[in-house]
Amino acid sequence: MEFCAHIPQIGWNAAQPFTIGMLERYVTTARALGFTAISANDHIVYKGSWLDGPTMLSAALPFADGLSLATTIGLPVVRGPAAYAKTMAMLDNLTGGRVIAGVSAGSSHDDYVLAGVPYDERWKRLDESIGVLRALWQPGAPAFRGTFYSTEGMSLDPAPARAGGPPVWIGSWGSERGMRRVATLGDGWLASAYNSTPERFAHGLATLVEMGRDPSTFSNALATGWMHVGDDSEAVLTMMAAGLDRPINELREQLPIGPPSKVADLVARYREAGLQRMFVWPLGHDPVEQLQRFADAVL
Fold first, then answer.
1. H or E element: which one contains 278?
2. Alpha-carbon gap, residue 148 to 139, rounded angstroms
3. Cα 146 to Cα 125: distance, rounded to the nearest angstrom
4. What does residue 289 show for φ and ψ, rounded to 5 degrees?
5. Long-range Cβ pairs for the range 167-170 (8 Å, 24+)
6. pTM for the model
7. DSSP-derived pairing of the beta strands 37-40 and 68-74
8. Over the stretch 157-201, which tens digit does the pLDDT of each residue have?
């Protein structure tokens, strides 16, 4: 099982402004500890201060040699599928083909209000957006024509470095319709840590097998894995429960937050369930220290 580091995007305040030096320290530490990828989530607005995901991935490029770069998830419907395709193609070129395009519709109504896109159309638009991405990333491919989008007469230059474009991993919390979308349109599945357990994840993998996907060739990963290793975990869980409006006992069970033995047990259960990659998102005053603690005390 591989471990990947999510760039901290939320929780910065005026007393601790974000700097490029902080990003460099975070990414270089992740590389040194053996993490295989860095990732960023995507919102226009969220609860409190929010750092823009594609901008963070671009800024991390000088420090990310050898690491994959992923959106977990990106919002092609909010950003516009053509604009998202252009951004990911450019990142793929700059990394020499190390980009993973994790996409979904997202759950923030405010993002859609600001983008001027009807929220109740988000899933239909997402399905079409994936068609737009694939058409624009493959020079000479047939144009995509849908209800909302068309690539007729359009091409994207330069094309991504990877032939056919970055792999598209689709985020789903595990509903039958969502897993059908993953199996039909995706190159991989992004599960959500705060909406899953190892048992639910195993059930999702079994569902994909029933839908014709081979787990030995079809990628899977666990995203939004908010993580904090230490005996002060209750304060972190209380903060998360308030921010996500979720029962604290539910988050205590699902997230890698707690003393090392508890976190290690959860990681091991996911490994046994068939998880290939875990994206951890460290919480706390020093995310770099949390990455180090995760590597030393958990792995």
1. strand 277-282
2. 22
3. 9
4. -60, -40
5. 167/100, 167/101, 167/219, 168/101, 168/102, 168/103, 168/130, 168/133, 168/134, 169/70, 169/72, 169/100, 169/101, 169/102, 169/103, 169/219, 169/221, 170/102, 170/103, 170/104, 170/130
6. 0.94
7. parallel
8. 999 999 999 999 999 999 999 999 999 999 999 999 999 999 999
